[in-house]
Design a protein that fits this description.
single chain, about 250 residues
């Protein structure tokens, strides 16, 4: 039966069977740090602080803004009585009726500093000593590969390891293990160890989620909240009462 996420032991297999240190490090960083593939491919040697045991992650987020074609004022969206977000019909700047808005995409850079465990730091240090990093635009990148190449590395390792397909928890659509599924595995592992409100807040910050609702989906995938709810229904006390009721009715 297909699963929604990779188990820690399965990620360990991917790392062990990788023939190249670069591929081992890619799997290790995506899982141990929980970063996005775009973030991992953007990590440079100078972003690693070996003394503090941290890595500085830079992430560019594209956001589309809508503006009035006449005066350029940014247009807002309002929630209609049917619960849908609809574009304002009149410009708040010039007052003209908006027939067609102008869309503009802007980059919003985000920077966060994440801790790295000692074993991963040692692997990074060994990788650097062996001349693994690649020069690109004046920066020494850990991985001089494209997103497509990174996806192929993870997919090929998963096939070599004999790992089956995963399914999206919400849609049930099957898919091959990918770099993002390693990030998912990190998040689910964190939730399983501690699903308290404080821990989820820290996880949200670590993953770089703007909305905590995005982080909470991992709590659903992990099944922790559902299992706790179910255990309350059929705990030892409730099970004993239920068994007693059946005996009273049959004897």
């Amino acid at each position: 039966m297909a699963k929604a996420y990779l188990e820690p032991e399965e990620v360990g297999i991917l790392e062990r069977i990788a023939a190249y240190l670069r591929d081992k490090l890619l799997v290790r960083l995506l899982y141990r740090v929980g970063c996005r593939i775009s973030e991992a491919l953007g990590i440079g040697v100078d972003d690693i602080d070996f003394e503090q045991g941290t890595v500085t992650i830079q992430h560019l987020k594209l956001r589309a803004t809508l503006s009035c074609p006449d005066c350029g004022t940014r247009l807002s969206r309002k929630v209609s009585r049917f619960g849908k977000r609809e574009l304002a019909k009149f410009c708040p700047g010039c007052g003209s009726k908006v027939e067609k808005a102008v869309a503009e995409e802007k980059e919003h850079p985000r920077v966060r500093t994440l801790p790295i465990d000692p074993d991963t730091l040692d692997m990074i240090r060994d990788y650097i000593d062996r001349g693994g990093p690649v020069s690109s635009d004046g920066k020494q990148l850990l991985f001089g590969i494209t997103r497509g190449h990174a996806y192929k590395i993870v997919r090929d390792l998963a096939e070599k390891a004999g790992l089956g397909e995963l399914v999206f928890s919400e849609s049930g659509i099957p898919h091959h293990p990918s770099p993002h599924r390693l990030r998912d595995a990190f998040a689910v592992h964190a939730i399983k160890l501690d699903d308290s409100t404080d821990s989820i807040r820290v996880l949200q910050e670590h993953l770089g989620h703007a909305n905590i609702g995005t982080t909470m989906k991992y709590r659903k995938v992990a099944g922790v909240e559902h299992k706790q709810w179910y255990d309350k229904l059929w705990g030892k006390k409730e099970a004993a009462v239920s068994a007693g009721g059946r005996n009273n009715g049959t004897e």
